[in-house]
Amino acid sequence: MKATVVGLVTPHVIRVLDLAKQAESGTNVDWHLRDAVARTVEDLSQQFNARDLLAAYVHGLETAARDLGPGRKLYSGMLQSAAGMAAREIERLG
């Protein structure tokens, strides 16, 4: 089976989407969000195309946040926060 960018990145994006949905229902997920992003960075940084995979991850989160619309500010904010954390990690990778 051939690994693809979508196949590698999508499960990580879905994890953050699930956490954002939980936050919308009143659950405090801040620590879980940071952990999910850290694990994603760790998992994807092991790949030879880590920068591309992490860029796709950030792009997926930003796109999802943008597509939510104005009525879902908490959900969108969680996605943007995760994207920001991941973007900072990309800079650290050099």
Structure description:
- It is built from four helices and no strands.
- It is mainly α and 94 residues long.
- The chain has one domain.
- The protein is globular.
- The mean pLDDT is 91.
How do the strands and helices of this protein lay out in sequence?
Elements: H1 5-24, H2 30-44, H3 50-67, H4 73-93
Helix pairs in contact: 1-2, 1-3, 1-4, 2-4, 3-4
Compact description:
This protein has one domain. α1 packs parallel to α3, α2 runs parallel beside α4 and α3 packs antiparallel against α4. With 94 residues, the chain is mainly alpha-helical.
Q: What's the N-to-C terminus distance?
A: 30 Å
> Quick one: biggest sheet?
none
One letter per element, helices H and strands E, the order comes to HHHH
Number of structurally distinct domains: 1
Q: Which regions have little confidence, pLDDT < 50, spanning 5+ residues?
A: none
What is the number of helices?
4
Taken as a percent bin, the fraction of beta residues is: under 5%
Overall pLDDT, averaged?
Answer: 91
- Characterize the quaternary organization of these chains: single chain
Principal-axes geometry comes out as globular
| Gyration radius from CA atoms, angstroms | 13 Å
Number of strands: 0
Keywords, separated by commas or semicolons:
94 residues; mainly alpha; 4 helices; 0% strand
